[in-house]
Amino acid sequence: MKNILVTGGAGFIGSNFVQYILEEKDDVFLVNLDLLTYAGNLENLKDLETDTRYQFVKGDIRDRELVSRLFDEYDFDTVVHFAAESHVDRSITDPEVFLTTNVLGTQVLLDAAKAHWKLEPDNKYSREYRAGVRYLQVSTDEVYGALGKTGMFTEATPLSPNSPYSASKASADLLVRAYYHTYGLPVNITRCSNNYGPYQFPEKLIPLMIHNAQQDIPLPVYGDGMQIRDWLHVKDHCVAILDTLERGRLGEVYNIGGNHEKANLEIVRLILNELQKPESLITYVQDRPGHDRRYAIDNTKIRSELGWQPSYTFEQGIHETIQWYLSNAEWVRRITTGAYQEYYAKMYNVSEEKGKPT
Ligand code: NAD
Ligand code: DAU
Prior knowledge:
Blueprint: E1 3-7, H1 12-24, E2 29-34, E3 54-58, H2 64-74, E4 78-81, H3 88-93, H4 96-117, E5 134-140, H5 164-183, E6 187-192, E7 195-196, H6 205-215, E8 219-222, E9 228-230, E10 232-233, H7 234-247, E11 253-256, E12 261-263, H8 264-274, E13 282-285, H9 300-306, H10 314-327, H11 329-335, H12 339-347
Parallel strand pairs: 1-2, 1-4, 2-3, 4-5, 5-6, 6-11, 7-10, 8-13
Antiparallel strand pairs: 9-12
Helix pairs in contact: 1-7, 2-4, 4-5, 6-8
This protein binds nicotinamide-adenine-dinucleotide and 2'deoxy-thymidine-5'-diphospho-alpha-D-glucose.
């Protein structure tokens, strides 16, 4: 692993990963290709501005010419593909961009990797690639659909996505799988559970609730708040990705989960408690359409094959995360002005007269 293309490296998980990999590895050169949508923020990476091992490129993964030019210029041997539209609620109101970015964008990257890495690119029967190349697709547990009260997602669980977001991620996974089976492209897919930690955009549950509680504005809990997610600290996720790049068996899927199942309401109460805010701020709002009730990852495969395991307890991780948001109030302020206010008002049906989500 020498020349790495990271897509979506200005987003939440991507920026944590870029920082992590450059801390861990001295001898790599990393290009971060990111369109800087509402979710991309170069402030997350400001410490790297003078690092000669790092290059930012503003651009779209759907741009074939650009992606191919970058492969020519930087001679990548590794691709870690994070770039995506990632928010389920946005996919419900505007699915189209989820399909173009998450599905077609993935296909552009796969095509570029195949064209640049295949030893005989014009021979359709050849399955020989340059030594040491690898494409890693960062996917999600949401492709498996929803669980009832019991059971866990394994890598063999059938794909059964329920939202336009998860359908687009599942489609991308199927393309990655097809490029492995048809062309022999050296790939891995990782499917992880809900991440939390520094630099997460406050449209997602944990940073949104921290932000609202700090502002003393209502905390919008969907439905009865008893939906369950399996929380994974973003730094544990980054370690799992590097382990997969270094030791994952080619063509394999690895589930990554923190073994921390929590109901949304439990998390919201914990945040209010830590910030010493009253539970009266909790406001039950109309449920998300098609809302998945429960996710839980069985991480046996990555533990036993790659020796990975989560290092954070949820209690430690959430405490540190809340403290990070408190210490980085200026970062939060800058991204929650302007377009964020419009998004919030529209998504949560907040009008000036009502002043609270419905
Ligand atoms: P994010 O929304 O915070 O960041 C996405 C990044 O992709 C942004 O920097 C954005 O500018 C960039 N981007 C979007 N469209 C692009 C395009 N067309 N071309 C180039 N860049 C583009 O997302 P995240 O939460 O960091 O998630 C990263 C990846 O991990 C996604 O693929 C997501 O599906 C997956 N994932 C996320 C979670 C989670 O809990 N956040 C869990 C499982 C899987
Ligand atoms: O499971 C992995 C997935 O986790 C990733 O693939 C997605 O990219 C990521 O966004 C996340 O999806 P969720 O839909 O689970 O995350 P979100 O933070 O949007 O919501 C978490 C839970 O909290 C979910 O049950 C919905 C609920 N919720 C969320 C928001 C934003 C609320 O009750 N109120 C809210 O305002």
